[in-house]
Amino acid sequence: MRLALIGVLAAALMAPAAFAGETMDRVTSTGILKVATNAGWPPQSYLDDSNQLVGFDIDVANEVAKRLGVTAEFDTPEWGVMTGGHWSGRWDVAVGSITPTKPRSEVLDFAGIYYYTPYVFAVNADSTVTDPKELNGKKIGVETGTTSEEYINRQLVIDAPGVAPVEYWLEPGEVKTYADSMLPFDDLRLGDGVRVDAVISGEQTVLNAIKNGYPIKVVPGDYAFREPLVVVADKGDPEWTAKVSEIITAMKDDGTLGTLTTKWYGKDYSQ
């Protein structure tokens, strides 16, 4: 009996620090929802002229906090740290337009899809390309470490219920990678085929570049793929994940997410 009791106590001491409900208790007692996000990814999240963090993801996080009866407090860690899990209580959620992939599911809990990003091909405004299939054999620019890079290299596996497997139909002649989301467009704007023939990126990012004066255009036709984006929490507190998921579902059902995607992207991407 004593040995069994010692075994139980040892197991309890070795268990993960976050018990079910612990995060909710902390958020409620402090009145703060600690949110991890990005600092330089417009229009998702970025610093405005007043050095204030604004954007679609910021509005979503603030609304989640509001429905919890607390205030959102933002931090902008390095992407790999944010998506690598094992947060040790540094953040309660991450709202950073994160794709639910199989490797991430092993270290993070997905609290719900809050919008979708259709991926498109962009070409220089002078390009004569009128169909994505005309880009076979061409030089394609992508941001490194992203789902667009995984897609162009035929390695993308999305881990989300109700999302169809990705279909691959493009065979690029060369893939050119960039360290930042806007650098591919900086090369594309130099001229048709000067440095790249096309860029694959989220439709929202491409349209935002066009809005900001980049001489580029979207290639008409089917999307390359449609990417779900999720709010995530660290593993170890299923009650907290369920609570955040409940809020995300309510925001989708009452039209809040549709309103916010339309505000920032000019289109409802919530469904």
Radius of gyration: 21 Å
The residue-averaged pLDDT reads 91
**CATH fold name of the largest domain, please?**
D-Maltodextrin-Binding Protein, domain 2
Percent of residues in β-strands: 25-35%
Proportion of helical residues:
25-40%
Instruction: Report the count of strand segments.
Output: 12
Q: Architecture of the largest domain, according to CATH? A: 3-Layer(aba) Sandwich
Largest sheet: 9 strands, mixed
Task: Please identify which CATH superfamily of the largest domain we are dealing with.
Answer: Periplasmic binding protein-like II
Assigned CATH class of the largest domain: Alpha Beta
The backbone outline, from C-alpha atoms, is: elongated
| Helical run tally | 10
**Helix-strand string:** HHEEEEHEHEHEEHEHEHEEHH
Ranges with pLDDT <50 over ≥5 residues?
A: 1-20
Number of domains: 2
Intertermini distance: 56 Å
Structural class: alpha/beta
